[in-house]
Amino acid sequence: MAKASFEEKLVFKANISSLYEDTERYLNERISILTSNYLQVFQGRLGTILDEPDYSPSTVAMVEYDLLVKNLKPMNQTIKMELLGEVNDKCAIAKKSGHFLEYEKHLDSLIALKLGEIESKALAMVTKVLAGLYIEES
Q: Is 107 within 8 Å of 83 (Cβ atoms)?
């Protein structure tokens, strides 16, 4: 295998850098929309926790939270596939150079982190709603 020229190395470096930048940009946009949509629906679901006379509001809120987490799980793979489709040409360069596995690990970690942030925000919403109910009862 021939050694890469200086110019080829610069092109490779620029493409890999662009791959990571494009990944960040795409995830920020996609997760922003996803966060807004999921948390808006979740807020509505939390508004119904007093509608279940057989269960405490806390129990109903946590069931709603667990459902949100369950519904987010498949989004991990969906977002990954969408993103890989968007940056396919740059992924080909990363694969050719042997750097794709590192990129894929980074991508998996980044998506999990961003989806975890949605879960965290939802749990904060549960806490706030339940705290408000507790204050009203006192």
A: yes
Paired tokens of 131: 């705290």
pTM: 0.86
Alpha carbons 108 and 82: distance in angstroms, whole number: 13
What token pair was written down for 87? 């940056």
| Residue 98 backbone class (left: φ over 0; alpha: ψ -120 to 50; beta: rest) | left
- Please check the confidence at residue 12 and state whether its pLDDT lies above 80: no
- How many alpha carbons lie under 13 Å from residue 67 in its C-beta half-sphere? 14
Q: Is the dihedral of CA 127, 76, 113, 29 positive or negative?
A: negative
